[in-house]
Amino acid sequence: MTDTIFACASGMGRSGVAVLRISGPKVSKILQEITDKKKDFEPRRAYLCKVIDPVSRETIDHALVLYFEGPASFTGEDVVELHLHGSPAVLSKVTEVLLTLCRMAEPGEFTRRAFENEKMDLTAAEGLADLLAAETDLQRQQALRQMEGKFAEMLEAWRSLLMRALAHLEAYIDFPDEDLPESLDQEINKYVKSLVTDIEQQLDHGQKSQLLRDGVFISIVGPPNAGKSSLLNMLGKRDAAIVSDQAGTTRDVVEIKMDLFGYPVILADTAGIRQSDDNIEKEGIKRAINTLQASDLTLLMFDASSSLPLDFPEIDPARTLLILNKADMLSNNVATGGKIYDMVPIPLSVKTGEGVESFLSILQERVAEICSLSASPMMTRQRHRQCLEDCLRALKSSLKVDLIELRAEDLRYAMAAIGKMTGRVDVEDLLDVVFSDFCIGK
Ligand SMILES: Nc1nc2c(ncn2[C@@H]2O[C@H](COP(=O)(O)OP(=O)(O)OP(=O)(O)O)[C@@H](O)[C@H]2O)c(=O)[nH]1
Ligand SMILES: [Mg+2]
């Protein structure tokens, strides 16, 4: 039997309304004790009540009370929500009273109960955690789809396909004298192969959804004085990095988190790359090169008014946009012509703003391509990737072995790997990790 828990679900600090949620077997009893309403609360009806201290009988606040009778509630248990006036004093007094009657919830404990009472699967719970943490509109859309169970539906379809294949095989395990008929053998392989294709596609595209969840890492690199820090400040709309006409101003990596066209982006300004004997500058340049190598996209920036460096670190044109800054310094209005490092350069001036608009639209296109939010459900976490990779390995192994028992064993393993994603098998050790992501009150 679980105990009764409570937490403030919204409106911390001074706000119009604070919602306090209580869940567990003692909800009805607690309601009788802390409200002035003595008869039973009908589920899903709003009541205006006085909230009272059961010992001193003092009125603490007037609240709107909503009661949900389990299992038709968020957690699957009896739940009550107290919509209180959102001042710290009200919350503190109600909390003091509730602590004598039940206990404060741990982070994610309400959602964990919902999962344990089969109100949602693990991927939906993760979707809810992402929705609560969403900072951009596209993150919100992705999280909402996962919370609504779209990903779990796809996994369930895969699992039932495997179950059918396995059932066929198992029928023959019971009759060791009979060979698996050729046609059935082909049919099972057809199922497995189509699943292999689906999972490979998911692993491929899933990389993008993971980026949308975690943020696209964009670095700005180039020689000193090209205007890298100026670009960071322009994109971030604040003076995050120092700008000066001294070559070698930026030494460390300066990162800002931002919402770029709805995509979550981590933008990193770096030290100008050049030959240097200065130890601090050398360390800065090493960090700049590491940052360049770790980025999803690099904005490689040169000064259009000076000559291009010849010994620049290796760059991957597929993950780079080449910018020629200080176009305002060119007399002939930026006639660059031809490709540099196998890329068509984008001329602009951070100072005057010329060329910036078309650069931004190219950047938006590139970032959209990197994340390419798709309407189909996608894996969003490393945990999903691991399970899918396990599943894929088992499926591929089943295609290689002849012995029916071994094939069945592989398919069973593949099914368990999918079951682990939705949380229906063998995940006890995972739950603490998943639910500790939540805030208290969810
Ligand atoms: N004329 C002109 N000057 C610019 C432009 N963008 C930046 N600058 C100037 O160029 C100088 C260097 O700019 P920064 O942004 O500090 O250059 P950086 O690439 O970060 O330089 P380091 O940190 O030394 O590697 C500053 O004086 C800027 O004001 C531009 O588009 N046109
Ligand atoms: Mg700089």
Key descriptive features of the protein:
Gyrase A, domain 2; flat; alpha/beta; binds magnesium ion; 442 residues; 12 strands; binds guanosine-5'-triphosphate; Rossmann fold; Four Helix Bundle (Hemerythrin (Met), subunit A); single chain; 44% helix
Could you name the CATH class of the largest domain? Mainly Alpha
**Uncertain stretches:** none
* Terminus-to-terminus distance: 20 Å
Mean pLDDT over the full residue set? 88
Condensed summary:
This protein has 442 residues and is an alpha/beta fold.
Blueprint (SSEs and pairs):
Elements: E1 5-8, E2 15-23, H1 27-34, E3 46-52, E4 59-68, E5 79-86, H2 88-98, E6 103-104, H3 109-116, H4 122-133, H5 137-147, H6 150-173, H7 182-214, E7 216-221, H8 228-236, E8 254-260, E9 263-269, H9 279-294, E10 297-303, E11 320-325, E12 346-347, H10 356-371, H11 382-400, H12 404-422, H13 428-435
Parallel strand pairs: 1-6, 7-9, 7-10, 10-11, 11-12
Antiparallel strand pairs: 1-2, 2-5, 3-4, 4-5, 8-9
Helix pairs in contact: 4-5, 6-7, 6-12, 7-11, 11-12
Bound molecules: guanosine-5'-triphosphate and magnesium ion.
